[in-house]
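Dear colleagues,

I hope this message finds you well. In preparation for our joint manuscript, I am sending the DJ-1/PfpI family protein (Steroidobacter gossypii) sequence together with its predicted structure, so that both groups work from identical material. I would be grateful if you could confirm receipt.
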Amino acid sequence: MRIQFLIFDHVEELDLVGPWELVGSLAQRGHCEPPVLVSLNTMTPVGEHKMRFSADAHYTERLQPDVVIIPGGRGAREAMKEQQVVSYVQWLGGTSKAILSVCTGSILLQKAGLLRGLKATTHWAFLDRLRDDPDVTVVEERFVRDGRIWTSAGVSAGIDMTFAYIADTFGAAVAAQVQLDVEYFPAGLVYGEPFRSESLPGYIRRLNPGA
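The corresponding structure tokens are as follows:
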């Protein structure tokens, strides 16, 4: 299995690096090929928080993945202004077995028309932007699957989505191996009271212990 990650200037680092770590572990165990980093603009993109990357290929090379993972960040919204990039994402939509988006990577999928008629989610601050599209059903969950399209909420949620994808595709036993490899056993701590804000998605508001 060939898994391709898209990257661009001003990518949100954890959107990319979290799922990449899981896929890297999956590859080390022989379940897929090593992941490939494909740039939508520069070959040396810089993240939102100044982490520097080096891409393996440029999107114009049209490498054919089985699975594509699209992170978010300000750069995703900038990249979709280029029609050639949108056309490339549309091409991926027609040729890939699965597409996973993290955070505002879903906005790029929306622009490419790949969320039409589907359920989807995104970072809580951009849910209304998804709702502006009458063809998309917004779901306020940490991640959502609709057919071969997976979308997640913001940043760290991409890790949970990728684990769910691994379990669904390779089985729970493989997901358990990867989970132990990366020691992903969240503490379950909630700092402050994020659930007090009605502007946040339902899955966060349900953290209220008194609800």
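For the figure legend, we might mention the following. The domain at 3-205 is CATH 3.40.50.880 (Rossmann fold). The longest helix spans residues 13-28.

With kind regards,
E.M.
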